[in-house]
DNA sequence: TCAATTAGTCAAAAAAACATGACTACCAAC
DNA sequence: GTTGGTAGTCATGTTTTTTTGACTAATTGA
């Protein structure tokens, strides 16, 4: 009982998982903004011109499900929610940097 | 006259370009197979179960346009076409490896 | 000359991703 | 009690990506 249940493609191509987790119209930009500190829903809407609630919400949910961002309710003045890089998210920074360093 | 003409998102997020060039349903796997040597159209169709002519053709064209693969007509016995990693493609290997090394 | 292999193209359909606009719900200030 | 900010959801529509199946065309071997 040691067969894995990954789709065959990801089994033979580990990079594909990462690519999937980071790709999409808004996820790379959200990830990048999160490098500078916690990000918030409405903040992202303002910082990402052309974006919209639905897409940002979906991107945040997927980044959270991929364990790249962590969602926290901040018990402060105007009670709000923050998304911060998880440990895995931090580990991904080097991958991200190697992409940024690659200027064609 | 020094404004650039990149979409705002790519300007502020260089990683996004790479992500775009490598993402898609078949491109990561094709890239990975190309690491082991030249790949061919019909060979890929056989090596990628579930793929189809159209998708493989499109992926190859985009990888070629992104200057990641180079298309060559090989003047041999059964005249055929090979796709090999370009110089840029080789430079991308380190990025790709850093993704592969990242096992969540 | 016939059949197989090479490497595709094309039009159309299906599926996935993304956007739009309306709506919800909580909290605080005025 | 109404406005404004927090963070979303939901149904729908549009756009992009991917798949399907038919077709083309050159080369090779029998």
UniProtKB/TrEMBL annotation, chains A, B:
Protein's UniProt keywords contain Transcription regulation: yes
Domain of life: Bacteria
Keywords attached to this entry: DNA-binding, Transcription, Transcription regulation
Domain HTH hxlR-type residues, every copy: 13-104
Alphabetical list of Pfam families matching this protein: HxlR
GO molecular function ontology, one term from the record: DNA binding
SUPFAM superfamilies linked to this entry: Winged helix' DNA-binding domain
Name of the protein described by the UniProt record: HxlR family transcriptional regulator
Originating species: Pontibacter virosus
